[in-house]
Amino acid sequence: xxxxxxxxxxxxxxEEAFLxxxxxxxxxxxxxxxxxxxxxxxxxxxxxxxxxxDDKGSNKGFEATxxxxxxxxxLEKGSVQVSDSAVYFCALSDLDTGRRALTFGxxxxxxxxx
Amino acid sequence: EAGxxxxxRYKIIEKKQPVAFWCNPISGHNTLYWYLQxxxxxxxxxxxxxxxxxxxxxxxxxxxxxxxxxxxxDSTLKIQPAELxxxxxxxxxxxxxxxxxxxxxxxxxxxxx
Lengths: 114, 113
Description:
heterodimer, A: 114 residues, mainly beta, 4-stranded antiparallel beta sheet, 12 strands, B: 113 residues, 7-stranded mixed beta sheet, 11 strands, 0% helix
């Protein structure tokens, strides 16, 4: 079956530090990959996505590249801000199989200190 | 445009009592999802609707959980009777169809005491 593995948190960084949150996946088909973000008190929001190998998704300074050879989709940002503090979820959607819904990782909490 | 609306935001009930959650998806969205999010975990699919038809309910504990989506718009998720282990956040999401982006509501946080 499909699964997503994320690095455990919390990740604590100082403002303007470089961020990497690791994500690897297992899928029986050829999935699309996503990063969702959950700010305190808010619902899940799509941050970025990639639908095929070597695609790079980007939004709000965050980037992630779909690496089929390593089955990874690591999230990066060059300079984090306090406002980036949230929980980040890596997810996949595999339309080639019958399970056409998102499979999520367990989430990684990011805390950015001023 | 209004997003996915869920109510209530919070619910506290005693074990063995029934509880219901309501979801109003984005207008025009044919696909509706209910997810369960346990503390410190990612959401897990409970059920997916295409219009009024439940097309994936393999993860729904049917002995105590039920869901409906009358007229293919609003949806209700019910638990009867609730158990302590049901304490979690219940998320609703909708999308135009199964191939497009899903938008999530803020969720209902259930506490069973």
